[in-house]
Amino acid sequence: MDAMGGDRAPGEVVRGAVWAAEELGIEPVLVGQKERIEEVLGTLGRRPRLEIMDAREVIGMDEAAMAIRRKRDSSMVRSLQLLRDGYGAAAVSAGSTGGLVAGGLLIVGRIRGIRRPVLASVLPSLKGSSLLLDMGAHTEARPEDLLQSAVMGARYAEFALGIRAPRVALVNNGTEADKGSELTKAAHSLLAASSLNFIGNIEGRDIHSGTADVLVTDGFTGNVILKHTEGLASAIFAILREELNQGLGSKLGALLLKPAFRRIKRRMDYAEYGGAPLIGINGALIKCHGSSNALAIMNGIRVARDFARGEVVRRLTDYFSEEDDHEQPEQNH
Amino acid sequence: MDAMGGDRAPGEVVRGAVWAAEELGIEPVLVGQKERIEEVLGTLGRRPRLEIMDAREVIGMDEAAMAIRRKRDSSMVRSLQLLRDGYGAAAVSAGSTGGLVAGGLLIVGRIRGIRRPVLASVLPSLKGSSLLLDMGAHTEARPEDLLQSAVMGARYAEFALGIRAPRVALVNNGTEADKGSELTKAAHSLLAASSLNFIGNIEGRDIHSGTADVLVTDGFTGNVILKHTEGLASAIFAILREELNQGLGSKLGALLLKPAFRRIKRRMDYAEYGGAPLIGINGALIKCHGSSNALAIMNGIRVARDFARGEVVRRLTDYFSEEDDHEQPEQNH
Predict the structure, then answer these.
(1) pTM (2 d.p.)
(2) pLDDT of B333 higher than 80
(3) DSSP strand E in chain A: where?
(4) Chain B 46-105, CB below 8 Å of chain A: which residues?
(5) A residues 159-218 near B, CB within 8 Å?
(6) Do residues A312 and A155 lie in contact, with contact meaning Cβ atoms separated by under 8 Å?
(7) Distance between CA A299 and CA A145 in Å, rounded?
(8) Cβ B231–A268 below 8 Å, yes or no?
(9) Which chain A residue has the Cα nearest residue B123?
(10) Which of A147, A210, B195, B292 is deepest in the core (most CB within 10 A)?
(11) With 0-12 CB in 10 A as exposed, 13-18 as middle and 19+ as buried, what is A260?
(12) A67: helix, coil or strand?
């Protein structure tokens, strides 16, 4: 646990980790400035089994990704080294996305055969949730990258989320196979020829309909979709509030509806989903939202536990090494 | 008025045109199968000043764009010819988007200096609405196309929508100028150097915040955003309904809230916005949603009236011919 990463670290992060220890029965390793971590623990009046690893430096939220090269004694770098060395089953950080993606690549390293790790995000849907990837680790993509993303997303959905034969869809500006950009048309062919449970193209209007378990797209579009979901949901809630403040009947109605609204917000709330897995590196790494509170951190740790427990990294390693075996002979013909 | 275009033509289209004639004081020219138009008019029991132009063929919603070449006597082709010839001040169709974009280009023709016409769409925002373009006329774009889109959107916003010095933003996966895809980084430079009121990059989360009047993006991303808005809004309303059906207090609350919900739905409803202008051709052309009802058609005609009244086409013609004048001497140096 990168105890110093995020806007509300170390307070909320340490609180979330303690909560996770109690709730999930895991034993957190808190990496960061020892005295500040101890200070937060002191205020809690309880202390489950946990470990503290001192790391003196902190990588700020606005620092360039390459700060991970300079700040060798930062909580983020030390956490990633522990993950690489197998000291922890998974790593969790609410620190800067750029730093974490770069650190995942440079410190933990890629799974052999995977060109680029991707960040996946859980989106709420009418039937629960779907996995969207790439949500922004890489702005540009080639058709082969989208195929690899699909394989990573499908393995993750199957083994970390427990979805059998997950349905994979490609985000596009039309459902027909011959519609789309050069990128999506080529990716569609690759996906259709793969062994995945590919259900075809999906349009923007079906992203939240629960039609697909895994939504594949490039990092630019994924980032726009993810932030658009956030922005549109809060715009609708703001309009709702505005409308409800008109008229006495509405005000009374609003009062009666409070519990329902709380449940809806919860279903839309990123804090409930906890974190975004970085898939494709040699370890289970979870990126939590920069403004994570203790609940989000606790849920991030839950996601990390499922990521590790599902042995997604080993399964992807097996998959891509078998692919290597298949491809080698053909190339030698 | 293409009286035969759309899923609910000619019934809803003719009803919408009659409504517009009464409400807006315009005189519609209904293009399509005369006897079917007369049949609808007969059921209305009233007949404002209008004209009927017989056209025997109909272009179906699923026909390829190039049907406009084959079906010379279709309501869509005839409507576009009337627009080209200046017989009407503007044209409105709820027929297939592909056909209309192709027809706009081939029959009405481009404004000189504009490489590609774009479809713009009105998106609801916290402060009213914003104009998003391109919403899908072209899947791929070059940086220069985004600059032209911005100019077209800004002129349209100023003269058809009456927004002074409209704020133009570029949809991107980060607000910083050096963030984004190759396309958006290059487009950002062009926009920053232009005379537009360019306020910089905008992320997905601010698309509905009312920060910008004109949102510029490529047709792939624009299409995903537009359909995502539709899909997410209906998902949220579905969850709302589900949650409101739980518990007696909620049910009573829901009853009291009905008027507020109706107002919200109205604010989110495409029928209220009417239609998407195709900007960049030699005429004011509005594409209505394929499933438009009479209200959507009426509002589409209102949008077409504002498009024509604002003389957007003349202003764009002036702008791009001046640009020609400016650029020529430099090239001759």
Answers:
(1) 0.89
(2) no
(3) 29-32, 51-54, 90-93, 118-125, 128-133, 168-171, 198-202, 214-216, 275-279, 284-288
(4) none
(5) 171, 173-174, 180-182, 184, 203-209
(6) yes
(7) 29
(8) no
(9) A232
(10) B292
(11) buried
(12) helix
pLDDT band with cut points at 50, 70 and 90 for residue A325: low
SS (H, E, C) chain B: CECCCCCCCCHHHHHHHHHHHHHHCCCCEEEECHHHHHHHHHHHCCCCCCEEEECCECCCCCCCCCHHHHCCCEHHHHHHHHHHCCCCCEEEECCCHHHHHHHHHHHHCECCCCCCCEEEEEEEECCEEEEEECCCCCCCCCHHHHHHHHHHHHHHHHHCCCCCCCCEEEECCCCCCCCCCHHHHHHHHHHHHCCCCEEEEECHHHCCCCCCCEEECCHHHHHHHHHHHHHHHHHHHHHHHHHHCCCHHHHHHHHHHHHHHHHHHHHHCHHHHCEEEEECECCEEEEECCCCCHHHHHHHHHHHHHHHHCCHHHHHHHHHHHHHHHHHHHHHC
Distance from CA of A188 to the nearest CA of B (A): 15
Q: What is the pLDDT of residue B176?
A: 92
Cβ pair A172, A180 in contact under 8 A: yes
What is the average pLDDT value for chain A, to the nearest integer? 91
Cβ-defined contact of B206 to A231 (cutoff 8 Å): yes
Q: What is the CA radius of gyration of chain A?
A: 21
Q: Cα dihedral sign for B257, B258, B263, B267?
A: positive
Within 10 Å of residue B83's Cβ, how many Cβ atoms? 24
Asked whether the beta carbons of A284 and A312 are under 8 A apart, the reply is: yes
Question: What's the rounded Cα separation, in Å, for the pair A304 and B243?
Answer: 30
By C-alpha distance, the chain B residue nearest A238 is B126
The pair phi, psi for residue A265, each rounded to 5°, is: -55, -40
pLDDT band at residue A330 using 50, 70 and 90 as cut-offs? very low
Of residues A250 and B61, more confidently modeled? B61
Question: pLDDT, tens digit, for every residue of A62-114?
Answer: 898 899 999 999 999 999 999 999 999 999 999 999 999 999 999 999 999 99
How many other β-carbons are positioned within 10 Å of the β-carbon of residue A128? 12
